[in-house]
Amino acid sequence: MKHLNKTYLFAFFFLILTLLFMSCKSSKHNEDGVKEMMSHYDHLILKVDADSIALMYTPNGELGDMAVGRDSIRHFLAGFKNVKVIAQNSTTTSLVINKDTAIQKGIYTQGDIINEKDTVHVKGEYIARWEWINGEGWRIKRMETKPIQ
Predict the structure, then answer these.
(1) How far is CA 45 from CA 12, 24, 67, 97, in A?
(2) pLDDT value of residue 17
């Protein structure tokens, strides 16, 4: 019985170490890392996951001029309960990294259903300023969007 418990304990620690290694590896301090995080951001928008979206920002991150700080961002996004995002895509048009800061520009498209009846398609430009935080990876310092007519 003791041997079995040690085996489970070893397997548990091995799993934890593997997950930690994989999570560190996915936060690359380069262009690929920024692009991976933006792809993850798109995925969270598609799920309308306000909590997880807010955590992608720095503690004092800015969502345009609408919200500053994770709690404020979370509260702002919680106001979109009547929106179901059916499509979300972003394409990077430029990306410049200088040490621990990245400026990413691109185009986004989004499809939404409002109040379970109206479908809306939006296209726009975005500018994301990312900051590298040791132990966390790339986090959004400021996200600005502008619809394209």
Answers:
(1) 32, 23, 16, 24
(2) 36
